[in-house]
Amino acid sequence: MMLKLSPECWIQIFSYLNACVDLHSCLLVNRFWCRIIVQILWENPFSYKLSNRKVKSILKTYLKCLSEKSIERIEEGVRSFSEEMINEKPMFCYSGFLRELVVDSKFDIGINNILKKIGKGRRNYLQLQDEYDEYSREFDVISEELVKLLCENSNRIHSLSITPCKMIDYMIPLLKGDHNHFQRIKKFTFNGIFNRNNLFRDDGLILALSRASRDIAHIRIKNVDNQGLCDSLVTLLNSQNRLRSLDLECHDLQNVSYYETMLSSSPHSTNSLSFDSIYFCDATVESTNCLAELSRKLKGFKLIECVDCSLLCNIMKSWENLVEFTYHTNKFDKDLEFLLTMLKLTSKSLRYLDIFWIREDDNFLLDKSRLIKCITENCTQLTSLKLRRLNCEDLFPLWYSCKKLEVFSFLCCEKGDWEERLEDLGRVLPCSVKVLKIGNWISLPFSAVALEGFLKGCKKSLKKFEIYSFVKTIEYIKVLNDSGVYYELL
């Protein structure tokens, strides 16, 4: 059976294994599986949370993939470099598997750790100028050859994420040259660093990327803190032919002005927009007018921890095409009218809704009741709904009104008559619901007996059931096994 499936089919099968431990176990089964799984493990090796030791190991593996010419240059330019470190031929050309490249300070740290091991006997003398100059030259040689190796296969890379670091300086000359690198990037992320005094030339890399990649579909920009960087990002936005999604994130509210230029430069093809930690009271008339124009064709709109969203009510006139809407904040009392207005305007088109809040005060129950009433009256076309802090009495009207729901997720309040009403809730669960997710920040407020009654009342259409809480409840397992529904206890 194994040989009848193509490698592409096996890649799809193994992609469902998210844990590296599971993939490593499968890798040892036979040579065929090994070749398939190695590709998966090395598609995005830098996307994980890695220790400095692990980063060093990855970079050393890449150094073994260097060409003979590059190895000769390293042997000549790096004193006491171990020949075994690079002359040992690897089983695979690991750099050719790279699909998602994340460039940040871990590259600098990894190369620095390699050089420390090489020059262990003279590490204490790096403070001397001549020793420091030699160390810098060795760092340059290894960095340049490593960047060349990654750029050789850069047209296979579809996702690029950069955070200002020294490694970027070595990438700029290659992108500025006649070489055709990074032409097929579909997703680009820039993670800025505040108060870094222009130590790195990331704006030069972005300008070079704007000439190399013209078909980026998703761009995410975080923490822009100077005009030069802003101008280069605007150039990148203007150069894109197929931009579909733009995410703007700012954790320093004093620098929001840089984002207004980028917003006004967003290509007309953009149909998804995301704001994170944006202070809308500082927005100018020009930027709000631009947002009003973009709203006519937006399919997705996301607001995460933004301030004064209610000011957007003045521009909310043309949101009839919105399909996905996400709103996360610690409290929505000031922005409740904004939410209600948004839900009414998008009642015919909205299919995905995700609202999150944390709030405890006297008006919380009243405001939540208004929000749920607005959803039940206007958002009857929803196929996916995600809410928090719900009681039993909140679920009944939602499930009676939203008859097209396929995915429903909620966090339940600790208070309420869950034990008595859970079986009744199972009976009114819409037949369309295929995936149901129930959770709580501490422990779920109902017993396994109540859960059994709920599952008995559910329609046969329910295919997947997820329970998640900080306190693991083993008593649910037997009930879930007997129900016949596929479940995950998180």
Written overview of the protein:
With about 500 residues, the protein is α/β, with parallel strands linked by helices. Among the domains are: about 1-40, Monooxygenase (Up-down Bundle), CATH 1.20.1280; about 390-490. About 40% of the residues lie in helices and about 15% in strands. The chain has 19 helices and 14 strands. It has helices at about 5-15, 20-25, 30-40, 50-65, 70-75, 85, 105-120, 130-150, 165-175, 200-210, 225-240, 255-265, 285-295, 335-345, 365-380, 390-400, 420-430, 450-455, 475-485; strands spanning about 100-105, 160, 185-190, 220, 245-250, 270-275, 300-305, 325-330, 350-355, 385-390, 405-410, 435-440, 465-470, 485-490. It has a 14-stranded parallel β-sheet. Strand 13 (about 465-470), helix 19 and strand 14 (about 485-490) form a beta-alpha-beta unit. Helix 16 (about 390-400) packs parallel to helix 17. The longest helix has 24 residues, at about 130-150. It is globular, with a radius of gyration of 27 Å. The two termini are about 35 Å apart. Mean pLDDT is about 80; it is low at about 120-125.
